[in-house]
Structures are given as C-alpha cells and as structure tokens.
Amino acid sequence: MNTAAHRDWLRSLVEEDVVVSAGAFADGSGALILLNATAIPSVEAAHKVLADDPFAHAHLAHDVSVREWSPVMGELSS
User: Which end of the chain is less enclosed by CB atoms within 10 A, N or C?
Assistant: First the structure.
C-alpha cells in the first residue's frame, strides 16, 4: 500500500482548496474525504477527482460514495 503517494495526492488537493478535510475512520473501516463543493462542479466531477487517488489506482478504494451535503450549523454552514 502506497500511503505516501495517497497523502501527497490529498495534500495537493488541500493546497488547491479542493479537499476540505480527510481522514480514516477510528474503527479502520474506511475514510472520509470532504470535498469543497465550490471547487467541484458536479457529482460526476467529484468521482473523477476521487478516481485519481493512488489508492483507487491500486484497487484499494472500495465502495466509493459521493453524496451532496448541506450543512446548516457550525463552521461549514453558510
């Protein structure tokens, strides 16, 4: 598993303001990558971004799901 390449990929997307935050679930069952909706024009575009993940290229990303989210409270709400 090439964790360094995956983290470099994420880091570049954070610097481009495409990724808001990312990290593994505490139980080890997977991870969450929170994308910036203003930087990604559609769900299809989000799938294309995630397909570039080195983990996806290595067939280590399974059950990828993209869902639009509308926060109403807290730091990420408008």
Answer: C
Q: What's the pTM?
A: 0.89
Write out the two tokens for 2: 């090439």
pLDDT of residue 1: 66
Q: Which two tokens stand for residue 42?
A: 């559609």
User: What is the torsion angle, in degrees rounded to the nearest 10, for the CA atoms of residue 19, residue 23, residue 24 and residue 30?
Assistant: -10
3-state SS track over 7-76: HHHHHHHHHCCCEEEEEECCCCCCEEEEECCCCCCCHHHHHHHHHCCHHHHCCCCCCCCCCCCCCCCCCC
**Cβ pair 35, 46 in contact under 8 A:** yes
Q: What is the pLDDT of residues 9-57, one digit of tens each?
A: 999 999 999 999 999 999 999 999 999 999 999 999 999 999 999 999 9
